[in-house]
Each structure stands twice: as C-alpha cells, then as structure tokens.
Amino acid sequence: MSAWPNKLGVKSDAGFEVQFTGRFDAEYREAGKVISIHVESGIHDDGAPCVIVNPDAFSGIKTVVASGPS
Q1: DSSP 8-state symbol, 58
Q2: How many CB atoms lie under 10 A from the CB of residue 23?
Q3: Fewer CB near the last or first residue (10 Å), C or N of the chain?
Q4: What is the pLDDT of residues 20-66, one digit of tens each?
Q5: Res. 11: pLDDT tops 70
Q6: pTM for the full predicted model
Q7: pLDDT average, residue stretch 5-27
Q8: How far apart are CA 24 and CA 42, in angstroms?
Q9: What was the pLDDT predicted at 45?
Q10: From CA 44, how far away is CA 37, in angstroms rounded?
Q11: How far apart are CA 64 and CA 32, in angstroms?
C-alpha cells in the first residue's frame, strides 16, 4: 500500500519514499539514506505515465561506510 503525502511524492508501507525535488530530479529515501537521481517524465507502452531513469544516473554512486568509535 502507498500513501501520497503530497502531489510530488509517494511513501510506501514497505519503507521507502520517492519525492520529486525538481523538474528533472527525484530523491529515493529508505532506512535513513537518500539518493538523488536525474529523471524524465515519459509514457509507457500501454499509455500510462511513467518515470524514465537513465542507467547512467547510478554511475557515480559511492558507498560510504561509517565506523564506530575507536
């Protein structure tokens, strides 16, 4: 099940949220982590609206591992 907290985002009961932050930008949020990606609006083959995400949107992602006190 999903909820629409506003016109620009959706929050899933599975624990993630997607929010449009600009005309071509969206944020995916889950477990306290956020990723910003470039997106474009599109139309699916069946005529339904969709979001197009270029696979290159994930090419610059770096993983940061936080270490505890030493």
Answers
A1: G
A2: 8
A3: C
A4: 998 888 898 998 888 888 888 889 999 998 888 877 777 766 665 55
A5: yes
A6: 0.62
A7: 87
A8: 12
A9: 94
A10: 20
A11: 13
Q: What are the Cα distances from residue 30, in Å, to 23, 46, 49?
A: 22, 29, 24
Distance between first and last Cα of the chain: 42
**Residues constituting the chain:** 70
- Return the pLDDT at 61: 65
Residue 56's beta-bridge partner residues? none
Domain ranges of the chain: 2-58
Q: For the beta carbon of residue 4, count every other beta carbon within 10 angstroms.
A: 9
Burial annotation 30-60 (CB, 10 A radius, 16+ → b, else e) = eeeeeeebebeeeeeeeeeeeeeeeeeeeee
